[in-house]
Amino acid sequence: MTISFYSFRTIQTMRIININALTMGTTGLCETFIPNSVYTQCIRWKRKPIWLPTAKSKVFRVPKKPVIPMEDYVELKRLYNNYRTYMTSFNAYIRQIAKENKTQVNETVVNELTEEDFKACNAINDEWNAKIAKIREIRLAEMREKRKNIILQSILKQEQKQEKRKIRINELVKKVKEESITFITAENVDAAIEECLTNIVNHNRALDVEGNWHEGKYPPIPLVEETQEPAAIEQQN
């Protein structure tokens, strides 16, 4: 098992020779370093969660220290020292490559690339703005036309409303003029009084379903002449 683990580490070291600076930062953090992978670590418990305290029955328990044979201990120590040496060398190599790449960067080239990228993005932005401007002009023209139609319809409705109002007012004025013939004025007030006195209307009657009038029980009171005295009026009553 130890030899296979060592071979696996060697294969990993051979795979990440051409690696970038971002991977170099995670080299010393991951226990199982695999390029282009996500580092995960699973923690499990069998009998109880790890955040619970020690059981009362095991507070004073002293675990037995495992006894490792000397030959195995020497071999494990040798393998661990080799692994640590390889990983230290590998980290130093990665740092050296990153430093060389950093020093080889030319500022003029970077500025030119940045300027070209800005020009390309600006051209794309101008193209988008032109398309949006055309769409906006079409939309605004449609909105203006729609608003114009709404205003014209509103004006027509107002004119029709005013015309109907004028017709109604003219009819009302015409009706009032026709009825004004029967109005009592200062000129015909005497004639109206004489007509009322001569044509006495008895409202004490009713009309049945067949159209017959039924006179009331009490006849209308006759008019009293101004020349009669009050005593004569009482005798008549």
UniProtKB/TrEMBL annotation:
A UniProt-annotated Pfam family: MRP-S26
Localization per Swiss-Prot or TrEMBL: Mitochondrion
Top-rank taxon: Eukaryota
InterPro entries per the UniProt record, alphabetical: Ribosomal_mS26
PANTHER family: 28S RIBOSOMAL PROTEIN S26, MITOCHONDRIAL, SMALL RIBOSOMAL SUBUNIT PROTEIN MS26
Family label: Belongs to the mitochondrion-specific ribosomal protein mS26 family.
Protein name, UniProt field: Small ribosomal subunit protein mS26
Native organism: Mycetomoellerius zeteki
